Amino acid sequence: MEVGLFIPCYMDALEPEVGISTLKLLERFDINVTYPFDQTCCGQPMTNTGCHTEAAETEKLFVKNFSQFDYIVMPSGSCTNQVRHHFDAIKQTDEVQHVRKNTYDLVEFLHDILKVEDFPWASFSHKVAIHYNCNALRGLRHASMSERREPFFSKPKDLLSKVKGIEFVDLERPDECCGFGGTFSVFEEGVSAKMGQDKVMDQHRSGAEYVISADSSCLMHQKGCAMRMGVDLKYAHIAQILNGDLS
Amino acid sequence: MSDLQQEVQPKGAKIKGNKPVNQLEAANRFIAASAHQQMHDQRLWDLRKKRDAQMHLIPEWEALRDLASDIKSHTLDHLADYLEEFERNAKANGVHVHWAKDAQESNDIITTILKERNAKSLVKSKSMLGEECMLRQHLEEEGITVIETDLGERIQQLDKEDPSHVVVPAVHKSRTDVSKVFVKTLNAEQGNNDVHYLAETQRETTRPYILNADAGMTGGNFLVAETGAVVVCTNEGNADLSANTPSLHIVTVGIEKMIPKMEHLAVFIRLLSRSALGSPITQYTSCFRGPRKGGEMHVVLVDNGRSTRLASQKFKAGLKCIRCGACMNTCPVFRRSGGLSYGSTYAGPIGLILSPTYNAHKYRNLPFASTLNGSCTNVCPVKINLHEQIFAWRETLADEKELSLSKRIIMTSLGKLFAHPKAYRMAVQTGDKVLSYLPHFIVYNQLNAWGRQRDIPQPPKETFHSWYAKNYMKKGKADE
């Protein structure tokens, strides 16, 4: 199985350790993982601002980098949602279709494709609150959502449950958006920060020591708010926990 | 409570003619009034929680949503036929049916009906269409006294402020705010902010108007083509009083409120109040099928941009809306911004997609007042793909050159940078290998919007890219 690894632009620059955890985690399984060297971004900042024409070349480059792989895997639900559901600025060739269909977020890939049953190398004895990125939750269906009448399920929780020691705590508003929203975080700064502060307080009240998410972007925003507010909470990407890099 | 009593209620967006409404500016002022903002957020979140509880009591909830959505889509696809069927049946019931292509025509028709009958005063129940057409202002200019009979709507009328929410128009006001308005306008007791006292004050001062009014007006939640009935759902009974006390009843209603048959009404009645307020049904669900003995009933069917929307494949689904307000209650941006920050009749997610259909320039900022989180789409009882339409509006605005210059410049340069790996790497990594990169949308923003209320992430020693190059490119796979 040939897997192409995409590392989101913000993660490459600001949280390389999450990329490293993702790569090392994937390498534990019987697959070939390659990081195409010419990768940049998934195009989301442009597309979400309505600038589809401006996103076309970025989408093309992505397809060029990744079309030869069986699977494209990335530690971000949000970027996965972009590739799978919004790569519409370019001609829908067989290659584009192949890339869109075979792009998976790390959680989905471990849960649905590799069907990993155990993470014996990992243990994490902490109180954990899960944060769902909205694109991962409602776009990729990482978990059931509170708005709908449907049976409970959660792929991130399924995976984390296989790690020794984790104790889960619940938030009052388990799937309310944290206010990151990509460019929203700077274009609509006041509302974004207020949403982030409210999210941090909910996490704080829950008694969580760590907030774990499949998306670092939301966490960077929440962590930035928590630090400024002086709230003692730690934030980590699910890859770091599943690979046993934090304990 | 003391903060709420002292804090001045924040006002809405500043409207400057046709200039784009600055929703964010008004939202920031709302957030700065922290007691009001917190109260607003909590009130609406409570409605959302009550809605969830009701949903869990109905095993077939998702099937009901599918059904409601299908009925609405079908009706919109055959709207012309159903409108004519409605007109035939309403006329047969003795109702006068009028057609208005826009707000002006609607206001003129209503003014003519009133003037021909020498009506000087009108009591009305809540109607978002009335707000959309600025009917009250129009009638007052024509010398007709208009009294809102819905409590929240009346508060807003007395305070000379628009409703901030389609279902709970004064939800942004504390009881102290209401008390202040009533002291000023209804001669209420100073400092008495007991809710029962305040409600009673409004009731006692409104009743005489209802008893003496020359005409009554209601909106319409649904039009039933099969029977020619107008269905009105309220909790205060004020629509029934407004419609039945005066001998003249005028209904003003948008053409999209149509449903084919009475049997379809049950689907919507089961969804409407559960979605709106988390109650199983509104206190009053009234079917007006004709004038009462000796009375007159008029129905004004208003288009005002609806048929243009119907012709748009992209934005047609917005016409399915039954105005329950569930998308507003769940919207994290709405709860923190307040409905008046949108400077538009319709606020929150539904406002984001409806407002630009009226004026794309004036409301060009609204589709950006969203994180695209998708909660609205999933609470919507008629399954309007709200967040997808918000997303689509951004593209349409960009195509129509209605994107702000700063957004356009940033996105053009980002698009170029991300398309060229070498240039991109140069930007990320400076020559001396010290990382001085932050996501470009942060750097490009001169005000450093990220750092105002958030700490900036500490740049690591190297990027993932460099780490990979060092560990994997030279010596093959890194040692574990």
TrEMBL record, chain A:
Pfam name, any one: CCG
Entry's Gene Ontology molecular function annotations: oxidoreductase activity
Gene Ontology cellular component annotations, sorted alphabetically: cytosol
Coiled coil (UniProt feature): none
Domain named Cysteine-rich: residues: 3-83, 128-221
Name this protein carries in UniProt: Includes glycolate oxidase subunit GlcF (GlpC)
Source organism per UniProt: Commensalibacter communis
Lineage: Bacteria, Pseudomonadati, Pseudomonadota, Alphaproteobacteria, Acetobacterales
Automatic annotation (TrEMBL), chain B:
InterPro entries cross-referenced by the UniProt entry: 4Fe4S_Fe-S-bd, 4Fe4S_Fe_S_CS, FTHF_cligase-like_sf, Helical_ferredxn, LUD_dom, LutB/LldF, LutB_C, NagB/RpiA_transferase-like
Pfam families for this protein: Fer4_8 (PF13183), LUD_dom (PF02589), LutB_C (PF11870)
GO biological process: lactate metabolic process
GO molecular-function terms, A-Z: 4 iron, 4 sulfur cluster binding; metal ion binding
Keyword Magnesium (UniProt): no
Protein's organism: Commensalibacter communis
Annotated keywords: 4Fe-4S, Electron transport, Iron, Iron-sulfur, Metal-binding, Repeat, Transport
SUPFAM superfamilies, per database record: alpha-helical ferredoxin, NagB/RpiA/CoA transferase-like
Residues in 4Fe-4S ferredoxin-type domain copies: 311-339
Name of the protein: Contains a ferredoxin-type domain (LutB)
Domain of life: Bacteria
Keyword Ligase appears in the UniProt entry: no
